[in-house]
Design brief:
Elements lengths: L9 E4 L6 E5 L9 E2 L83 H23 L1 H31 L4 H6 L3 H19 L5 H28 L16 H27 L13
Amino acid sequence: MGRYLPTTPGWYPNPDDPRSLRYWDGGHWSGRPRPRPPWSSRAELFELSDDDMDRSVEGPVHPHELREPVASGAWSREWLSWRPRQASPTWHRGPGQHSSRLPRPPRIPPPAKLGPARRPLLALVCLVVIAVGVVVSSVAFISPYETNSLVIASDQGATLRFESVANKQCQATLPKYRDVLAWGTDGPSVMAASRQVELLGQRLNAINTAQELKGPLAQWLLTLRQFTDDQDRYAAVVGPAPRGQLQPSLARLSTAAQSSAVNLRRQADAAARRADGYSSNLALTACRLEPTVT
């Protein structure tokens, strides 16, 4: 083997160790030897004459026993590039010897082709898949915009309905009590007017409105409640007016009571101005608390 080199790739007796095989890739010896296959003890020796140098040591052997070495890469990837070599059935047969052939692997039938009768069904399935894709895409990309526009239109309708109902209720209630709440000095009359304003606020809070108005509406109703609380405390301080006086005044009260009544009236007037600012922002022109000065 030292004088002659093979010309065809294959497994040959290792020139450095006759107990093993070495792969010749056509130009160089591989760096990894293989042990002799188990069947070598039952076949002729590996000594080859000069005329047999191009006969690689392969025969009726399972492909896992002899396979080409991996030229490069890790051993863990060797199975990816593994390709069994075609065995030569007569390399080791001596005169008059016959080797038994390995059984051929069972023939795997080719996959059945789609017959003409099933092609319309396949076309129908494809059309259904396409239709589902179109529907899903339309729902995903178009529906959000349509839903957003519907929500905006619904909110606008609820806002207009709230403004209409609230203005009607304010117009039916507040004109009767504005003057009493602004200048009245009779405690029971002021408290009765304050009670009507409190009930009006409860009715307005029960009206359905748009989500964007709930915050400003809550601020307005809270200020309205502060106004009625100040009016109730004022009515408790001034008490009932003496009978027979057409225009009762605070002069009948003590100095401390007069001072307390004046402060409570100022607080109520400030709350009324804040409430009127909120009602103007909500387009509730009929819901102002302060009387119009002419």
